Target: ATP-dependent RecD2 DNA helicase
Amino acid sequence: METLKGTIIETIFRNSENGYTVALMEADNDIITVTGVFTADVTSETIEVYGKKVKHPKYGEQFQVDMYNTVLPSSLVQIENYLSSGLIKGIGKYTAKKIVEVFKEDTFSIIQKNPERLTEVEGIGEKKADMIAKSFAEQSDIKEIMIFLQSHDISTSYSVKIYKEYGKNTINKIAENPYRLTEDIYGIGFKLADKIAASLGVEKTSPYRISSGVKYVLKDFASRGNTYVPYEILLNSTLALLETNGEGIEDEIRNMAFNGGIHIEKIYDEQVVYYVPYHTAEVNVCRDLINLARTDFGMSEEDILPFLDAAQEESSIVLTDMQKEAVLQSILNGVTVITGGPGTGKTTIILSILRIFEKMGKKVFLCAPTGRAAKRITESSGREARTIHRMLEYAYGEDDSNLSFNKNEESPLECDAVIVDEVSMVDILLMNNLLRAIKRGTRLILVGDVDQLPSVGAGNVLSDIINSSTIKTIRLDTIFRQSAGSMIVQNAHLINKGAMPLYNKKDCDFFFMREGRSDDLTDLVVDLYENRLPLKYGFNPLKDIQVLSPMKKGDAGVIELNKKLQAAVNPPSKIKKEKLYGKYTFRVGDKVMQIKNNYQAEWKITHKDGTTITGEGIYNGDIGYVIFIDETEQQLFVQFEEEKEVAYPFSQLDELILAYATTVHKSQGSEFPVVIMPIVWGPPMLLTRNLFYTAITRAKKLVVLVGIEKYMRDMVNNNKIDKRYSALDYRLRSAVETYAMLSEGFME
Ligand SMILES: Nc1ncnc2c1ncn2[C@@H]1O[C@H](COP(=O)(O)OP(=O)(O)OP(=O)(O)O)[C@@H](O)[C@H]1O
Model:
């Protein structure tokens, strides 16, 4: 591929629909005609073109452009965007605008050569001018890159992330294969990469595009919980995504399978396709569960009963036969599953198991998938519980390049048993990492409620294990928590059985308020949150009350509800700084939620005596409050639980959302004193019984539902759990059959 750099002196023709352009470019003291697709009018711009020289029969020599980059000088908007990108300290949006208004195209050279002149701009003093100049000098090599990215419509915050990832090689890397952005940059999906590729002139049938499209479809299915996609569905979805005639797709799928990026297999007589990490995880989870489950500890019930009796004496609770069975099996078997709804004694059993192991002198690790769930079991068991990630020592490796689990097959967990609480939230990838670190001889006890929503990540781990009937499973169905007037637990069980909940009884804790009109409904939710519940019961709205909605979009969706709740409890004010980012304005005082695991986020706890502790890691679902916004340093500060303070550069605000209202999915593993939930129409795929069940089991003291009974009845009746493509149950069953055949073979 040849390259040529020059200035477009005239555009002869431009098709505004497809961008096809014929223009004259002055390059190397010569004038040459360039032809190709240009996303914007490039007249007067200095550009770099990539392509080849051809001889046109009529017009003579021309340069056929495959891709192009805009080179400085660039438009004022781009200069302004670069200055306010967060890379230059001391410049926010407002200052950037002012600087460009004063210095126009000369902005960069002024900052570089005569930074003292910055003081001509209103609001910039000598100190600030100096800071800007220094920061600008540090960033000088990335200027061109930022402008290249922005000329391809990449937003400032993504540009910063891209530069951080690729550094000086940014332009080359993206020009070579813009689709790599989908792999390397969090938040950039196929669609954005495709837009960039189009603006670089990449062909629609390029193999890079097809393979990226296939991966996008596989990952998109995975993000909705599936570990694989049936071949035909993958083909059709990819076709719809790429909008081509389909040419090359099947070939590329085959190539990808040969190269090892994807895996094709027959499951239940159907050809299916896996993105390799999910296949590896599913196969390994199956193998490891079976191996662990086959361990014989050489113990009998009689060996354990004396310990069990002693443990019972310590507590005031007499375990039922089923509960005893759960405790005994957990100690006798390599792998045991204990499942049951709220108040059926799961925590009580965990505590008994812990006591028995302690008496036997055995070491047990207790863990849960989220920080909040780990904190809850720590509080109720009085024993330290960690998140699974923390237990597996998820951290940077020695070369500091990649995050990985330091506990694995080479350095397994040194203990006699691992108890995982809230296991319904564990997806196939995390289960794989957990199992890698559990060596044979260590018991694995999985405790959870299989009727809760499945994990957010791919897989149906708990329910597949139970459905496979290959792992010892105890189902608890007697409810013990029956305090007077409390309907929450009873209603959870009613809903689970397909019956309507009982509500609005005198002095009870479960209410339904009818409201059909969507405006009135959201107003009522806000009124309950802001006034009625705090007044009547003394709840603190921000700390005690959580609004849960089944969906993100729509009038009663999380986005709209958050806007209304924010306007009510934390309205704009002269004394509160705010920062607009995407759909939300973040304001000092706002309740926010982290929506991604960020193992690098540094937090700081400052004690009253001025001493500080620092650490790393803020996780998906963590809730905090905005305490400070620093426009000069371009940072927003959030205080999370335990007073952990985290500084978010503005470019990282995509990790936060307002959290007055959250989706039911995001609330898994958390509990709140009060839950308010709108009951409105929504897609049946979403409004399921187990979503409703999960929502109400989040509440400890009070549930208030607002909406129309019919939609509540629809949810209760809708027990069609959104089918996930996952084959762990199939693999477990097949593996056990194979083992059975093998051992029969050995017996002969
Ligand atoms: N066998 C029993 N006899 C009497 N009370 C019991 C028995 N088992 C459990 N309980 C009591 O029932 C209540 C609920 O038990 P526990 O907290 O263990 O259930 P859970 O399944 O963990 O509930 P959740 O999932 O809602 O946390 C507790 O107060 C516990 O003390």
